[in-house]
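User: Can you help me understand a structure? I only have the sequence.
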Amino acid sequence: MKRSLLLSFVAVSAFASSGAFAQAELAKAKNCMACHTVATKLVGPAYKDVAEKYQGQKGAEDKLVQKVLKGGSGTWGPIPMPANPQVNEAEARQLVKWVLTTK
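Assistant: Let's start by predicting it. Here is the structure, written out as tokens:
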């Protein structure tokens, strides 16, 4: 029984971490990491800071999806975020969901 429980835990952990890895790879592939990192401000805010700012806000996911797609300015300083035509809406939603879980 203990062995079965341990194997289940390992499998779930591997799946969860591979999901985060996949999202980081998508962010790299879509050029998001040219301006952002998970932990520190680069050109744009760190993903952990975005997650903290929008934690628990109703409509945050939809708002950020639109910002990824269309760009925006003023929220994090004077440097605008450009539109990202290389990202479709499904990818933007996937990325935003991941960003909102970073710590």
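Now, to help you interpret it: The chain is about 55% helix and 0% strand. The domain at 2-99 is CATH 1.10.760.10 (Cytochrome Bc1 Complex; Chain D, domain 2). Let me know which part you'd like to focus on.
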